[in-house]
Every structure is written in C-alpha cells, then in structure tokens.
Amino acid sequence: MGCSIQKHHKILGSTIEASKVHKVTTADLSIKPISFILKNEYDFTLVYRLGQPISQSHTAEVRICFLRETNEKRAVKIYKKDISQSKRESVLKEISILKSLDHPNIIRIYEYFESLSHIHIVMEYCSGGEFMTDIIKKHALNELQVKKFIRQILSATNYMHESGFVHRNIKPDNILLEDETEYAEIKLSDFGTAAHYCQGMEERAGTLQFMSPEMIQGNYNEKCDLWSIGVITYLLFTGKLPFVCEENEIEQKILQGNVDYSGEVWDSLSEHAKYFTQVLLCREDSRLSTKEALNHPWLNEIQTVSEPKCCTKLLSNLTLFHYSSKLKQALATYLITQCVPNSELRELKEVFNYLDKDGDGKLSREEIMQYYLQDNGIEEAELLVQGIIDTLSCEKNEFISYSEFLAATFDQTKLLSLNNLKKAFEMFDKEGSGSNSCQEFKSIIDEINL
C-alpha cells in the first residue's frame, strides 16, 4: 500500500473497523488504480516520518512526510478523531472520491490510516505550493499563462463532473503547483466538500467569495464549480476578486451579480477573454458547462503545441506493447500509481497532454487515431489503435485512462525492477502463501531477464 511494505506491528486495541488483509489472486484481480489505494492497518508513525507543516485549517493539518523505507517525500492530511461523526463521514467520503479519480491535474492519493486518535491521508507532495502564492510572487500573468492554468483547472473539473462529482470549493488555496519550475502544472486538491452531484442540491459548502449565487439560495447543480472558476479567472486577470466589499455585503453583491469589466486591464485583454469570464460569472441557466468551457474560442486560441521530442519513440513502442498476463498489467498499474515519483513522469505526462486535444484527462479513440493517421492510412491506423485500446483499457472502454497510458509507456525494465517487484509482491501476497502468485512473479522476472 503506497509502497510502504515493511512489516509493522498492528495497532492493538483499536475499535476502528478495518478491512482485513486480503491476499490478491489473479482470479479476482482488478487492475484499476482504485484497487491499490487501501487503508493501511499499521501505525502511521511506523511507516512515515513527519516533516514540517504546510497548512492548517480548523479541522485538519497538512504536513510533509517521508516514507521511512525510501525517504520519498509525500504530503499527509491529518484529521483528529475528536471531530463530529458527520465530519468523520465527510473525511471518509473525501477518501472515497479521491480514490476514484485518475487525472493528471488532480492530486494523487497513495493510502490512508485510521487510528484511535487520527485519520491520515497520504498524498503526493507538490513542491510548488499553493497556486496563488506563486502568482503573487510573479506579480502578473499574461493572457496566455492565465489560459494555460484555467484550461488545466477546467480539465480536472470536467473529469470530476463526468465522474459524477462536484467539488464545491474550487479556490486558489485548493489549487497546487506540482513543482517549482516554469512548466509546472496545477493539481486540484482538498476534496473535503466534494460530493456526488444531482439537480437541486441544497447544502451550502465552500468559501463565500467563490460561492455561486444559486448555492447561496440553496438550489444548485455542478455548475457552481464553473462560477468558482470564473471568479479565479477574474482574479488572475485583475489581481482582485469580482466582489470587493465588506464581508456582510458579499452575499448580496454575489446575488445581484453586477461584475465590473471596465478599466485598463479589461481594455487590454482580447474580446474572447472578456466574454469567457462573463459566461462563467452569470446566471446558472446561461453559464457554460465544463465541456462547453473547454471548447470556448478563447481556450482554443492557445498557440499550437509542438510535438514532444520523445513522442514518436513512445508511441511507436506503444503499438508493439502488450501485457503477457493480467498480473503483469496489475503490477504495472500498482507500481506506476503507488511507487513511481512524479518527477520521473514528466515526459510521459507531456506526451499525454499533447494527445489529449480536448483536455478531458482521457485519450479517446479519435485522439489516438489523429496521431497515427499522420504516418498511416485509415485502415492501418484503425488496426493499430484498436490493438492499443484492447491491450491497455482494463475495462475495455473506448478510451485510455491517464494511469493506463503511464503504465504502458514508462520504461518497463525500470518499472518492473527486482526491487519494485519485491514491493509489489508484498502487496499482492500479504501472508506469503500465494504459491501461484510466486510462480507468476517468477515468470515475469524471467521474462524481463532480471
């Protein structure tokens, strides 16, 4: 679980219900990343060493932590167990939602712990910190930079909405930069207020300055997230929130919806940029959906991205790639999502984003075809793409997920190294009694000549 495989003493006397250790066999093997994000039954402090604090709210603290076995840096969100029962249920719901999301711009969760006193959620560490803190340091963004970040936020939000979830608290504090480089991408985080969405939701959630008028009125749907993204867009363009007033007047200002688009800043921006902001900061029935926003002319004015240098090699190899067994595919999925640091995925992520033309966080048949049609006829390209989808899509969908792409394109010899296989074997055979698994692991080791 999260590559934390060393043997630890179990927590004694815990009254917390814990899923029993399950020996995974190839007969019931599930290959989706969610299958490997599990509750760790051992004491958090035996698996991780705590580092310095990152942030704190009235219910949780986020800190750096280090995996004791490898010293890998991660982040951990810590909830005290003296929270109310409803808050505890909210935390467990947050974990459940994060487990199900597989997108390059959504924070990755590795594992979680629940003891008598705390709940620990272990996630990837984003060294770039909070998005807005970095923006303030840089003083200003040009329109192209704003466009890049908004597209990434929309891509993550669209993926959430298509998965049936609404975030309900999209704001700069909950958007992180994955690293400190100029090419850093954003990661949407803090899913504590996220929920399954439906028409006519009533519960107020999130932060008032980024809250849609219909949420204030108590009857809203997933488009509340689009309002929040509109507020962020306005903030990035102008350096201020659209409703600047005394706190007790904010609700009324939001309900009135009179947004100021006058002044030098707006005069200097393109008409498409201004209109894009306007069709987010408007009545719910006139507001764009995430899919419509991603297809808006302003976002599609992004300069043509050149093909990444490693693209040809990676995608040529992809047509020849195959998994020799279901176990090997599960191994690759486990290792790529749980054990490979983000720093080693940069080139693969660049290629994925290049292929993902509509920015929805998945590679459709049409998007993959678009690439292979450059050097192949229609029939040959169709055969190549069908072979890739048949090989990689664990649920035989008409698309390739982010993790499926990473698992297939990462250096397989490096991914299935002896050290990584040992970590994975501990995961797949907790009690050390799976003789069939042993034989299959041995065949994989022999296959890659380790």
TrEMBL record:
> Partners and quaternary state?
Monomer.
Enzyme kind, highest EC tier = transferase
Sorted UniProt keywords: ATP-binding, Calcium, Kinase, Metal-binding, Nucleotide-binding, Repeat, Serine/threonine-protein kinase, Transferase
The Swiss-Prot or TrEMBL record lists the needed cofactor(s) as: Mg(2+)
Tell me the ranges covered by the Protein kinase domain, including all copies. Answer: 48-299
Q: Which SUPFAM superfamilies match?
A: EF-hand, Protein kinase-like (PK-like)
The entry's protein name is non-specific serine/threonine protein kinase
Q: Where is the EF-hand domain?
A: 343-378
Any one GO molecular-function label of the UniProt entry = ATP binding
Family, similarity comment: Belongs to the protein kinase superfamily. Ser/Thr protein kinase family. CDPK subfamily.
* Record's catalysed reaction(s): L-seryl-[protein] + ATP = O-phospho-L-seryl-[protein] + ADP + H(+); L-threonyl-[protein] + ATP = O-phospho-L-threonyl-[protein] + ADP + H(+)
Organism for this UniProt entry? Stentor coeruleus
Instruction: Tell me one Pfam family matched here.
Output: Pkinase
PROSITE patterns per the record? EF_HAND_1 (PS00018), EF_HAND_2 (PS50222), PROTEIN_KINASE_DOM (PS50011)
The UniProt entry, under PANTHER family, shows: SERINE/THREONINE-PROTEIN KINASE
Q: What is its EC number?
A: 2.7.11.1
